[in-house]
Design brief:
Number of helices: 13
Distance between the termini: 37 Å
Largest sheet: 6 strands, mixed
Bound molecules: adenosine-5'-triphosphate, magnesium ion
CATH topology of the largest domain: Rossmann fold
Radius of gyration: 27 Å
Strand order of the largest sheet: 5-6-7-3-8-9
Structural class: alpha/beta
Strand content: 25-35%
Number of strands: 13
Order of helices and strands: EHHEEHEHEHHHEHEHEEHEHEEHEH
Shape: elongated
Helix content: 25-40%
CATH superfamily of the largest domain: P-loop containing nucleotide triphosphate hydrolases
Mean pLDDT: 83
Length: 369
């Protein structure tokens, strides 16, 4: 079967910054006055043989036609690198990559007929032109005829809800509108695959929600496109994606549907019990009794102003008999005021697999940021 996107043992190495700082710099007195000359470029290329940051360390992904696939991962995981390889902006070093069967290293034109990327940092719009004029400019650049360009631009402005502001200079566009314009530009060529790097970063919650809705309803459902996106937003991944891959330090460490990922990683549920009537000092014995029960871990208590504990939280295995736990609590003289169980969230799973602990702040990644 041919996949929309397939990577096999994909490896990408970047020269380290120390190398970059020296690579390409003219050396010796003879080179003075020749900054940026051809020799410097050759040097830069030679310099790239130096020590490397391995941004991707053997990525295997298979994305099916029509899927919405999310790539999650902390800063520096390699998400943007992967996306840039797919849209031919970065060359990979080892492995294989196919975009509808075409190799981005060898068949650039074919790949770009099949895949367009929306990168948040991409520029290239003329700030003195209107949104519509900018799109018409790109449509002509992409080889559309005058009539086709006009029709496609109007369709896309409508598609992304920009028609009312189409004739405004784009310096007046908000971040959300600029993002829509970038999407219009990517859709000019009507490719079957669209790739987004952090599509909703920098958007307010309402605009982000609208943008997500547009991806699901219009791109995936109406147009049947394959969508690959990277995100830091776990809620977004859960809401949007058919399947996700969690990346860390250049590796895919989990890949499945969002529901399967969270249940694969965390079998447990969280049990929270609010109590009253605790006798001061009694909690230690109770916690020991709870800890002795197989299938309970990570017990924590919340202490009230009087020094008594008011609630208990713990992770419990799915099959554990909760009635037994509650009998133990009430048997120790506690009054049970409320009981809550929560399924693990994708965020719990993500934090567990990436070792990212909210209380300590984001973990600094080697070679990241
Ligand atoms: N042009 C470059 N030159 C050298 N190293 C780079 C370059 N681009 C990225 N890197 C390094 O490659 C690794 C992966 O970076 P990448 O931007 O792909 O991560 P990311 O997952 O997109 O992170 P973020 O969430 O911060 O956007 C990082 O260690 C980064 O420092
Ligand atoms: Mg990135």
């Amino acid at each position: 079967m041919e996949y929309a996107i397939e990577t096999i043992n994909l490896v990408k190495r970047y020269p380290t910054s120390s190398r970059l700082a020296t690579a390409g710099m003219p050396r010796g007195p003879a080179a003075r006055g020749n900054v940026g000359g051809f020799g410097a470029i050759i040097d830069a290329v030679k310099g790239s043989r130096g020590p490397f940051i391995e941004a991707l360390k053997g990525i295997n992904l298979r994305i099916k036609e029509g899927e919405i696939f999310g790539i999650l991962g902390p800063n520096g995981a390699g998400k943007t690198t992967l996306i840039k390889i797919l849209c031919t902006l970065v060359l990979y070093d080892e492995g294989e990559v196919y975009v509808n069967g075409h190799d981005p290293r060898k068949e650039v034109a074919e790949v770009l007929k099949n895949l367009q990327a929306v990168l948040p940092e991409s520029r290239g719009f003329n700030w003195r032109l209107t949104g519509k004029q900018n799109l018409e400019f790109y449509a002509l650049l992409y080889g559309l005829s005058d009539a086709d360009a006009r029709e496609r631009v109007n369709y896309l402005l409508d598609f992304t809800g920009l028609t009312a502001r189409a004739d405004d200079g784009i310096q007046r566009y908000s971040t959300g509108m600029q993002r829509r314009l970038l999407l219009c530009r990517a859709l000019l060529r009507d490719t079957p695959i669209i790739v987004f790097d952090e599509p909703t970063s920098g958007l307010d919650p309402a605009s982000a929600g609208e943008f997500r809705k547009m991806i699901i309803d219009r791109l995936a459902k109406d147009e049947g496109k394959t969508v690959l996106l990277s995100t830091h937003n776990l809620q977004e991944a859960q809401e949007l994606c058919d399947r996700i891959a969690i990346m860390e330090r250049g590796k895919v460490i989990a890949s499945d549907t969002p529901d399967n990922v969270r249940h694969l990683v965390i079998e447990d549920r969280m049990l929270r019990v609010a109590v009253s009537g605790a006798v001061p000092g009694s909690q230690e014995g109770l916690i020991k009794d709870l800890e002795a029960i197989k299938g309970i871990r990570g017990i924590s208590t919340e202490i009230g102003t009087t020094g008594n504990f008011q609630s208990l939280s713990m992770r419990v295995e799915k099959e554990l008999d909760l009635a037994y736990v509650l009998r133990l609590l009430s048997g120790s003289g506690l009054v049970i005021r409320s009981v809550n169980t929560e399924e693990p969230t994708l965020e719990d799973a993500f934090n567990l697999i990436t070792g990212h602990d909210e209380r300590k702040g984001p973990r600094r990644m080697a070679g990241g940021f």
